[in-house]
Amino acid sequence: MVAIVVTAVFPLVFVLLILASIFGIDMDADDVMDGGGCSPIGGVDMSAWDATFTKAGVLKDKGDKIKEVATKQGIDPILFAAIAFNETGWGTSRAVVEKNNPGGLMDAATGMSTVKVFATLDEGLEAMGVTLHNRIVKDGLNTVEKLGAVYAPIGVANDPNGLNVNWVPTVNGMIQKLGGLSMNCSTTSAGTGQYIIPVDTPNVSSGFVDRINPVTGVPEHHKGIDFAQPMLSNIKAADDGVVVFAGMGVSGSGFGGYGNVILLEHAKTKEWTLYGHQSGILVKVGQVVRKGDVIGKVGSTGQSTGPHLHFEIRKEKMGGQIDPAPVLGVQTKN
Ligand SMILES: [Zn+2]
Q1: Where do the DSSP E strands lie in 267-332?
Q2: CA 238: distance to chain centroid?
Q3: What is the rounded CA–CA span in Å between residue 99 and residue 267?
Q4: 98: helix, coil or strand?
Q5: How far is the CA of 311 from the centre of ligand 1 (A)?
Q6: For the chain: N or C, fewer Cβ within 10 A?
Q7: What is the mean pLDDT of the chain?
Q8: Whole-angstrom Cα distance, residue 21 to residue 139?
Q9: C-alpha separations of 187 from 78, 111, 272, 283 in Å
Q10: Ion ligand 1: residues, Cβ under 5 Å
Q11: Helix, strand, or coil here: 261?
């Protein structure tokens, strides 16, 4: 009896201790990536995906939610699902059933001594997505083996039963059941830290200045520089990076007025570059781009009076614009 209790309870305690050491610092949903990203290497095998989810306990109906969160976080839904299945014993652990916590996230409010409680399972999956993004993209733990070395280190004092050795093979087995990985996260680069001019024939029509907005007539600080360009001419990535926003900047999105806009995150500089008023959107969130890649075509969408690229360099994801002209070495006349 005692032996049963020991084997049933202790592994769970040890797993939680291990998780506590890596989770809990990642609860900020605004946390952003510092490097890398994942590129699609083929679609998800939907029949394998659906068949595997039928055995996944309370996660059974959460396939679509996991895909949604994975897309938002630029990570592989297959890897996300495999880790969730592993951490929850196929969706049956007390943490996921009673606390809506599929990722073993610990509660900062209790000094990481208890598993965090989420109001809904969707909330728990969102939080797990942020943490996985940080481990995979920000910290560069971009293979199952590298993740395992952190999630379940082999030979550590808090794994006396040697269970951690199972983490990598078990997760890999679940990945195979789900139809195999659908993204490659290991080919990323931090970039050079040196931005190139993102258009071929740089003709600066407006600098980083206080001005009257040409569309609204309202005085403003122009937070980037404008390159007047031929319609549909190439827009190039200023450095290696990951697409963190790509779409029409509708009001309330934080990108209102920018029209079709892309925001890239750059690991080397820990900065973001923004490319506004594009004719359409050619890239997807989570996509890894290389310096000089054509990421869009010049347009005049959003608050714009003619075809141009509005380009920003940001110190923060949603602000902190600096003057790109001296960085790019271009002259501005106004
Ligand atoms: Zn502009």
Answers
A1: 271-278, 288-289, 294-297, 308-316, 319-322
A2: 19
A3: 35
A4: helix
A5: 7
A6: N
A7: 85
A8: 15
A9: 18, 36, 20, 18
A10: 226, 310
A11: strand
Length of the chain: 334
| Amino acid identity, position 72 | K
Torsion of CA 52, 58, 60, 63, to 10 degrees: -100
Q: Calculate the CA 306 to chain-centre distance.
A: 33
Do the strands 225-228 and 204-206 form a parallel or antiparallel pair, or are they unpaired?
A: antiparallel
Q: Which tens digit of pLDDT belongs to each residue from 174-217?
A: 999 998 888 776 655 677 889 999 999 899 999 999 988 888 88
Per the listing, tokens 């007390």 go with 94
pLDDT computed for residue 201 by the predictor: 87
Q: Rounded CA gap, 64 and 69, in Å?
A: 9
- Report the amino acid identity of residue 63: G
Domains of the chain: 2-184 (no CATH), 204-328 (2.70.70.10)
| Residue 75 alpha carbon to ligand 1 centre in Å | 32
Å from CA of 250 to ligand 1 middle: 16
User: 206 alpha carbon to ligand 1 midpoint, in Å?
Assistant: 7
The model's confidence at residue 18, banded by pLDDT at 50, 70 and 90, is: very low
Beta carbons within 10 angstroms of residue 176's beta carbon: 14
243-259 confidence digits (pLDDT tens): 889 999 999 889 999 99
Question: What is the token pair recorded at 62?
Answer: 């959460």
pLDDT, position 192? 84
Q: Which residues contact 238 (CB under 8 A, 6 or more apart)?
A: 195, 196, 197, 198, 264, 266, 273, 291, 311, 313, 328
Q: What is the CA radius of gyration of the chain?
A: 23
How much distance in Å is there from the Cα of 259 to the middle of ligand 1?
A: 11
Strand pairing category for 260-266 and 241-248: antiparallel
Per-residue model confidence (pLDDT) at position 187: 54
The Å distance, Cα 58 to ligand 1 centre, comes to 48
Q: Can you point out the beta strands (E) in 80-120?
A: none
Centre of ligand 1 from the C-alpha of residue 225, in Å: 5
